[in-house]
Amino acid sequence: MHKTLILLTLFLSVTLAVKAQQPQQVQQPQQVQQAQQVQQAQQGQQMERRLVSVPRAFFVPHWYVKAQAGASYDVGEGKFYQLISPSIQLAGGYKFNEFFGLRGTISGLWAKNRYSFPETKYQWNFIQPAIEAEFDLTQLILGRNPERVHSVYAFVGGGVALSFGNDDAVEANAAYYKMKNYIIQDYPLTRAPYEKLWSDTRWNPVVRAGVGYDYRITEDISLGAEVNANMLPDHFNSKLGKSDNKDWHFNALLGIKFNIGPSHGRTEPVYEDVPKAEPPAQFVDVPAEQISFNVNIYFIINQSIIRANQLPKLTRLLQYLNEHPRAFVRLSGYADKGTGNPTINMRLSIERSQAVSKYLQDAGLAEWRIRRFAKGDRVQPFDIPEENRVCICYVYDPDNPTAQRFEY
């Protein structure tokens, strides 16, 4: 009996002790969580978002199609204008990267040639499919920039020319033999004019190369021009060249290009939370001698859109301002006095400083660190007129008043 009472007493004691400890175990995490929330709230009031990585353009492999039309010239006897014919070319290709692509083309229509004695002019038709490797010279020479609007390219390749409709040369050759026994102006017709004559159809291998220029007017559409040279066997124009030379066919074309799908994209900006810098009590102007350095953002005539080739400057400027939270920037917009009028130029200078200010603020720079000015064409900071289409970013850093200038 006593043992039973002792065991029951121990059991009740342990149970009460466990129950007494349970509220303390539950309360402790709640207190810690509340303390963390208070700390996070305090930190949130003292933190601000800062841009770590600005959006960057990147290339996207894509297909494209191109339609071109122009004129062709076939080397032969006769004056230059007598050997010009209309020409068309259709192309489709794939750009693997900024520098290299492959394309297939179908070109042709008809070609002309002449024989000087006896005086004969003739033409024939041809269709020329080819495969070519294309190289973007602008990207190779000036560096990667998927958003560049100008593109100079070169290509080299080969194919075949399917020639047909050579009736003019066949008829002229037959007419020659009818008059072979005659002498015209003491010149005997002893050499046939069409030593390489062909009829029906003929396949000729072709090697071709050329250069072109594209100007992108929208994300998907470009206008361009192209010239190319085509080397074919001596049979192409039905005549024997000197020392069995090759026949040459040249094209000058204008056209339009359509990208199938996006040709480039942009990365998302990356931000981080950093201690918030308190603005000064009063934002005062800075004398020129206290400017740490300046960055020049150039615009094209009558435009206030920031061009892609100016973005690296703003990237470096943002990087410096993010690393020096007490530094601020003064934006001064200008316009070229030689174009427009004072009213237009003042508006342009305002829009240019606003465009740079918006870009910096969109990248996470606090508004209080930016001050804008517009000079119009009253002040011309540069001797070269085109350079006065500019927004000059003057940076003042009280912690580093003699910062090294950006070389732009």
Low-confidence segments? 16-35, 183-187, 281-285, 404-408
Strand adjacency order, main sheet: 3-4-5-6-7-10-11-12
**Structure annotation, total helices:** 5
For the report, how would you describe the main beta sheet? 8 strands, antiparallel, barrel
Through-space gap between termini: 100 Å
Question: Strand fraction band?
Answer: 35-45%
Q: Would you kindly provide a written description of the structure presented here, covering whatever features stand out?
A:
The protein has 408 residues and is of the alpha+beta class. Helix content is 24%, strand content 40%. It has 5 helices and 18 strands.
Entry summary:
With 408 residues, this protein is of the alpha+beta class.
